[in-house]
Amino acid sequence: MKNIGLIGCGNIAETYFRSQEYFNNINFVACADKFPEASKKCADQYSIQSLTVDEILDDQNIDIILNLTIPQAHYEVSKKALEAGKHVYSEKPMSIKFEEARELLEIAKKNNLYFGNAPDTFLGGGGQTARELIDSNEIGKILTGNFIFAFPGVQEFHPNPESWFQQGGGPVIDMGPYFLTMLINLLGPAINVRARGKKFFDKREYLAGPKKGDFFDVEVSTSVMFDVEFANHAIVQGFISFDVQNHARNHMELYGSKGSIVVPDPNMFGGPVLLSHKLGSDWKEYSVEDKYLGKTNIINHSGRSNEAPKQSNYRGAGLSEMIFSIENNRRHRCNGEIALHVLDIIESIILASEKKLEVQLRSTCDQPRPFMEDEIKLLLKND
User: Fold this and answer.
1) What is the pTM of this model?
2) Torsion over CA of 356, 199, 222 and 354, rounded to 10 degrees?
3) Per-residue pLDDT averaged across 136-144, rounded?
4) Strand 298-299 vs strand 310-311: parallel, antiparallel, or unpaired?
5) Residue 160's domain is classified under what CATH number?
């Protein structure tokens, strides 16, 4: 059993602590936060140690650091953890700068350490069922596709939304990893991007928490449209925005030479997959409720217009699979190479939107292996 120390006791921490209910190899022993009161609250709630960041990095009893800090701090915290001899699993993105992320991978490889990175939602029943259908040539060669992720912004519910709107933030770096990682799962690596972006408002209003009614500055584009071309020659169009009040679509559609497939919300693990073979034909539904990581397990209260009220949320699956891979000396699926490639796509989208040009990617990665049900079963506490 590997011992995990968590750094960053914000909103997402609760989700990862809950992963101990599902996975048999996740064992949190300590937490830390730059705000001691936040660390103490988590420690008391989950009966673990509350430490400073330096203490948690120096603790020889801790094998893995789970980095849940804000994106602007990911690089610094992950680097310190790797240099302290710890394996690292980080929330997305790997860093806010491609070169920093590449350095993290180099340090991990040099020290023979694992680096894992969210999102892990592509491991869920929705993403894996879609992968199985595409790999079996149900819709032929993938030609094009599109997706939308849009809502009014995290200021609707988060008391400290500033980092989402500062340099290193924005809708593409926030939500892009879910869709881009899912696409790499389904299609493999990308090769180039084109994009356009817009910042519609210079300031946003706090709509939750103690600063409600005040305003904060916006530094980045809050709506971005882009095209990503993949190595298999498919071109997928994306639209990600913090400017949309409501819409009726939270899925991804891919169009092949023999049919079309609807992939459920990559921000979650479940949801039905739909498949149609020709114009005017019915959509065949593939339920994932019988999948280990597809069953509905929560009622979502985020209030986001693009999220269904019932969800399958098994965040922590990627961390669990990484721990299993460490113990069995094999490559993990939510690996740093994929995270680096996703960051390359994101950084290139932002550059393309600013310069109005096509950007060639600097990196590539391997398409992750399918996550089979018999493998998932090995990680679960209960079948």
Assistant:
1) 0.94
2) 20
3) 98
4) antiparallel
5) 3.30.360.10
Domain containing residue 202: 122-360
For 54, residues 6+ apart whose C-beta sits below 8 A from its C-beta are none
How many other CB atoms are there within 10 angstroms of residue 366's CB atom?
13
What's the pLDDT score for residue 307? Answer: 54
135 pLDDT more than 60: yes
Interval 226-260: pLDDT, tens: 999 999 999 999 999 999 998 888 899 999 999 99
Written as one letter, the residue type at 288 is V
97 and 186 fall within a common domain: no
Strand pairing of 142-150 and 235-241? parallel
Which H, E and C letters describe 181-195, residue by residue?
HHHHHHHCCEEEEEE
CA distance 62 to 110: 20
| Separation between Cα atoms, residue 297 and residue 248, nearest integer Å | 23
In a domain, 107, yes or no: yes
Residues 94 and 198 in one domain: no
Q: Is the peptide bond before 159 cis (omega within 30 degrees of 0)?
A: no
pLDDT, position 352: 97
Count of structural domains within the chain: 2
What is the average pLDDT value for the chain, to the nearest integer? 95
- pLDDT of 308 > 80? The answer is no
Q: 71 in helix, strand or coil?
A: helix
User: In which residue are the tokens 């992950």 written?
Assistant: 78
Neighbours of 295 (CB within 10 A): 15
Question: Cβ-count burial of 288 within 10 angstroms (0-12 exposed, 13-18 middle, 19+ buried)?
Answer: buried
Assess whether 48 and 129 both reside in one domain: no
> What's the whole-number mean pLDDT along residues 276-289?
94
Q: Judging by DSSP bridges, how do beta strands 203-205 and 235-241 pair with one another?
A: unpaired
> Helices 98-110 & 336-355, crossing angle to 10 degrees?
170
Looking at residue 140, its pLDDT comes to 98
pLDDT tens, 189-199?
999 999 999 99
Domain boundary among 117, 151, 174: 117
Q: Which residue has the tokens 């609250």?
A: 41
